[in-house]
Predict the 3D structure of the following.
Amino acid sequence: MTTPLFVVGAGRSGTKFLMNILNNSEHVHLAPEIHYFSSLMHDGFRKNLRRKHGKKPEYRIEEVVDCLRSGRNFGTYWRRKNEFPDPEIETWFRDRRVDDKGIYEYIVRHDSVASASGKRRLRYLGEKTPSNVFHIGTLLDWFPDAVLLFMYRNPVDVLKSEVNKGFKPDYPLSKSNPLYAHGLVVYVFAVWLLAAVIALFYKARNRDSIHFISYDYMAGNVEDVAQRLAGKLDIPYLPSMCQVEKVDSSMAQAAPGNLWTPPSWIAWLYRITLFPLMAKLDRRSLHHETPNAP
């Protein structure tokens, strides 16, 4: 029996790096950004399903298969061009409802079968999609025993990282647009603020199942974070968990300010309005919790 596990947070906060650490354990498998739910800037799988076949308490298997194979879903997961065999789908839904929860569970389970078939001792199964922070309520309703890991980062550095990254598919302005960087000021501000408020709200209600992880702490203390997570999840810690490539993750930009730095007034606006929230996150962060013995 596996326990649901989800990595969420504002973008460019190290969620991919954390996912890779956890996926190095034989006891954990997280799918990469299914985007089943919609975020602020793009439509998720569920919205595409509803747009094409209507909002229903249950769907026909043919409608689900149509969307699974459409090739138009947003997210890293769908770029893998996964195959969804009919017998597998029929077996999964034989004794389950073909509703939002059942479809989501199938996609998560399918990824583990396709990508982690060699892991025979799985105890945690889930996904890494930062924007799922806006759907924590739904995830906890569906999976009351779920564990959620919320990644957060200095918001000024998030802004730098967002501007400096090459391609941003979930943002409406192109990099050639002169308003690109300034538009991101508002975008990052709103997403970071909303994500932090939601995370703090659910942390107060579900203290034992939600853990905050600081990017800034993890950047210099990867081994300590991995050991603390192993203790919290009650899985063995192995040094190999920390042997993670930083390519294509926010961790790859150790000093993102070399390309673009926000004007001082923007940095001060962020510090005045967002840093008090970050202090609250820090006080509740994993590295301030008493570590469990792995």
In short: Strands lie at 3-9, 28-32, 124-128, 147-152, 210-214. The mean pLDDT is 90.
